[in-house]
Design a protein that fits this description.
Helix content: 40-55%
Number of strands: 14
Number of domains: 3
Oligomer: single chain
CATH architecture of the largest domain: Orthogonal Bundle
Largest sheet: 6 strands, mixed
Distance between the termini: 43 Å
CATH superfamily of the largest domain: Hypothetical protein af1432
CATH topology of the largest domain: Hypothetical protein af1432
Shape: globular
Length: 501
């Protein structure tokens, strides 16, 4: 197992993230520490980063360097926000950092920032076209991609901090109105934003959208505590925006989901987003927890470019989880058998294609609960799946997969737990979960020796009996015996007797 340390200088904080990674291209965050340092505070007066801020930053970096050195991590990536480039003394500042801490920081260009943001979305969302939006302190990025290749992009020279300064003499509600008006005029200069396909999706990156997601989940009593890929609907955004606009700053600081120290800047960020919702965001926005850093690391460790993106996001994500948290199961073989059963039993379950993604997650993580304990591991599957980083799947897919993987014993299905997620799942999904849970259990039993013994399965439905004929490479007595233990639950769910040959 290898490790990589990433040092990131932002305008509001210094961040150290330690990744663990393998030679075959899987990586995950092992540790992350964030220290608040307002590096660019007061810089607008004369264009210089102030000495006190420089020393504070260097002090933090020294401590971060100790952590990395003590852990014997030799691989480093160091980069800064493009806004640092505007400082008149940025070269002297970075030279002092290098001399003091022996870390060479690269100042990202606008083009590199856009490329990194694009890569972050490519590696964590499964969508063919969309618009990525990041609202920063001093700039706003807009990136349109089609077939996962960038077709248009823009880095606008305004963000939360400089627009707050620009309209700082206004009452907060007036300031927000002025920001919406100002940003709208700037957006209208970008013709390509007004020529979007109907299925084009919006992805929001950064503090504004993370805060928006938190506020939306709280307002709607969303049952799943997951920020990535959470969708903020247009109506939810409007409600949150109207709430913020109607509050004075002191009351806004008390909202759970907004940083107390950043409430005014985030309110301005919401106003920037409001202009976008007014102009071209019609179907809501999906929140991404991954920004430039994730994109830089992904490109660095996977060695791929935007022209050759990772296409199977979900498969990579599930394999990555299994790589770092192995459960002694061949997830590809398990899923392969589950798919065969799914297809052979289609005449009985009559489920639609979208449930295949649920099946894949459940088949890959049907023993993930063993990370906690072998005892009741199937019940533990539920919490492990809900709290894992699974990319390329919707929140509904993940919730359903959690129920499938934890309900392989049908009598132990928790209807009370199901009701908690009523705003995500449907009555139709309940029937699907029961049917998929039996398939997953049978697939696991037919793969119990982890030796890929069962190669194919044929199904015959004869009256009240289902006969599954296995094609095997070697003796499969144990696999068939274990799979037959599912006969009772199979009868309850499918209403048929089960025979496996």
């Amino acid at each position: 197992m290898n490790r990589l340390a990433v040092f990131e200088l932002g305008v509001n904080d210094v961040k150290l993230t330690i990744f663990k990674y393998t030679q075959n291209g899987f990586f995950a965050i092992e540790q992350q520490i964030v220290e608040p340092v307002k590096l660019t505070q007061d810089m607008e007066r004369d264009g210089y980063i102030k000495p006190a801020r420089i020393q504070e930053t260097i002090s933090v970096l020294k401590n971060f360097r100790k952590i990395v050195d003590n852990a014997k991590i030799e691989q480093h990536i160091c980069f800064t926000d493009p806004s640092i480039a505007s400082a008149r003394n940025q070269i002297a500042f970075l030279d002092e950092v290098y001399k003091t801490v022996s870390l060479y920081f690269k100042v990202l260009t606008v083009e590199e920032q856009i490329s990194a943001l694009h890569s972050a979305i490519l590696y964590s969302f499964a969508m063919t076209r969309g618009v990525i939006v990041k609202i920063g302190d001093y700039s706003t990025q807009l990136i349109k991609f089609n077939r996962r290749v960038v077709s248009n992009s823009a880095s606008l020279p305004f963000g939360m901090a400089n627009l707050l300064t620009k309209f700082s003499d206004q009452h907060m509600s007036t300031c927000m109105d002025k920001v919406v008006e100002y940003v709208t005029k700037e957006l209208k200069k970008l013709d390509w934003l007004y020529d979007l396909e109907e299925d084009c999706e919006f992805i929001g990156v950064g503090e504004v959208f993370l805060s928006l997601g938190k506020l939306s989940r709280k307002a709607t009593h969303y049952p799943l505590d997951a920020a990535h890929n959470y969708e903020v609907t247009t109506s939810s955004f409007q409600s949150i925006y109207n709430l913020l606009r109607g509050l004075d700053l002191d009351k806004a600081k008390k909202l759970k989901g907004i940083s107390e120290k950043r409430a005014d800047a985030i309110a301005v960020g919401m106003a920037i987003a409001k202009a976008m919702f007014n102009e071209f965001v019609t179907n809501g926005v999906k929140v991404s927890t991954n920004g430039e850093m994730y994109g830089i690391v992904a490109k660095n460790l996977l060695g791929q470019t935007g022209e050759k993106p990772l296409l199977d996001i979900l498969g990579y994500s599930l394999s990555s989880n299994n790589e770092f948290y192995p459960t002694n199961i061949n997830i590809d073989s398990n899923y392969s058998i589950a798919v065969i059963l799914y297809k052979q039993l289609k005449v009985l379950h009559k489920l639609t294609r979208p449930y295949v993604k649920v099946l894949r997650i459940a088949a890959s993580m049907c023993m993930s609960g063993k990370r906690i304990s072998f005892e009741n591991y199937q019940k533990n599957n539920f919490h492990v799946i809900l709290n894992s980083s699974i990319y390329g799947a919707s929140h509904k897919d993940i919730v359903l997969a959690a129920f499938v993987a934890s309900s392989q014993n049908i009598d132990e299905f928790s209807l009370n737990e199901w009701v908690r997620y009523k705003d995500i799942v449907t009555d139709e999904d309940l029937d699907a979960v029961r049917k998929l849970a039996i398939i997953i259990k049978m697939a696991t039993m037919l793969n119990i020796t982890n030796s890929n013994t069962v190669k194919d399965i044929a199904c015959d439905v004869l009256g009240d009996t289902v006969i599954l004929k296995t094609e095997v490479e070697r003796d499969a007595t144990l696999e068939i015996s274990q799979a037959m233990s599912c006969a009772g639950d199979f009868k309850k769910v499918y209403g048929k007797n089960l025979q496996i040959l």
